[in-house]
Write a structure and sequence with these properties.
Blueprint: H1 3-21, E1 39-41, E2 47-51, E3 56-57, E4 70-71, E5 77-79, E6 82-92, E7 107-115, E8 118-125, E9 130-132, E10 135-143, E11 158-165, E12 171-181, E13 198-199, E14 203-208, E15 216-219, E16 225-231, E17 233-239, E18 247-248, E19 251-255, E20 260-262, E21 265-268
Parallel strand pairs: 12-20, 12-21
Antiparallel strand pairs: 1-2, 2-3, 4-11, 5-6, 6-7, 7-8, 9-10, 10-11, 12-13, 12-16, 14-15, 14-17, 17-19, 18-21
Length: 272
């Protein structure tokens, strides 16, 4: 093959390549681009797919987070400028309502707290606050109550939170003694020392006046004494009694800011 023929062939190949490279891309409306069919879950629970021509995921729809106090698992709520998202029930040892227990039990809930650019995962115990960005964050109620005859799924949980700025927290203390009496079949006047009321070590359930849910459970010691700190308000103290005796009545006490309120509790032994 002569040099002239070879040069002609080479020029033809170069020209053809240039034509193919610079040819305008097709803009035919009927041309279809197929994207993968996988989807992405958005924070609000909706799903978005990929869109041509880049096949990137579509933007998630904007979700409005309302100012609320109660949330279910994986639901984000806004409570006094703090975003709270319950993530997982770590443990729930609450006493079922149809069973008599000597301990009320507790709930441990993992939550995500967010404020501004700060976020933190913490585990909240029922009515025991944690400090986050200048606030006390408390889990104050969990429903439904446990019942051995009616078990429930995790998606039925509802958690109520209280967010209190630290500068606004006002607390007081409650103290007192739990005793049992009478201790002798016949009480004499003047009372005999051996027939004096006896200290009673027991669990004490604390509820806000007018509320049915247990806010806190404390214990009296072997000398019958108890002491606890609570936010300002009115509370009902109810010692956990025996199956029949001793029978303990509840007492109502007012917590005053910076003060100690004394409230003694008497339980009936049933001795007559």
């Amino acid at each position: 093959m002569s040099n002239k023929v070879a040069l002609t062939i080479l020029l033809a190949v170069v020209v053809l390549g240039a034509i193919l490279y610079y040819r305008p891309k097709s803009t035919t409306p009927n041309e279809q681009i197929f994207c993968a069919q996988d989807v992405r879950e958005c924070p609000g629970g909706s799903f978005v797919g990929r869109i041509p021509p880049t096949c990137e995921f579509a933007e998630c729809p904007a979700t409005e987070v309302k100012e609320e106090t109660t949330a279910s698992l994986n639901q984000k709520i806004l409570n006094k400028e703090v975003f709270i998202t319950p993530i997982e029930v770590v443990s729930d040892s609450r006493c079922p309502v149809d069973v008599q227990c000597i301990w009320a039990g507790e709930v441990n809930l993992k939550v995500l707290l967010e404020k501004g650019n700060v976020n933190k995962e913490v585990t909240l115990k029922l009515v025991t606050p944690v400090t986050f960005e200048g606030n006390n964050i408390s889990l104050i109620n969990v429903i439904p109550e446990k019942n051995t005859k009616n078990p429930f799924n995790d998606n039925e949980y509802r958690f109520t939170f209280l967010v209190t700025p630290l500068t606004a927290v006002k607390t007081g203390t409650i103290s007192g003694t739990v005793t049992t009496s009478p201790t002798c079949p016949v009480e004499r006047i003047p009372p005999e020392p051996q027939c004096a009321p006896r200290p009673f070590a027991t669990a004490i359930e604390i509820r806000q006046t007018g509320k049915t849910s247990i806010l806190k459970t404390i214990r009296s010691d072997t000398s019958g004494k108890f002491n606890t700190e609570l936010p300002v308000g009115s509370y009902e103290l109810k010692p956990i009694s025996g199956s029949v005796f001793p029978s303990c009545s509840s007492v109502t006490v007012q917590v005053i800011s910076g003060q100690n309120s004394i409230s003694d509790i008497s339980c009936d032994t049933g001795i007559r």
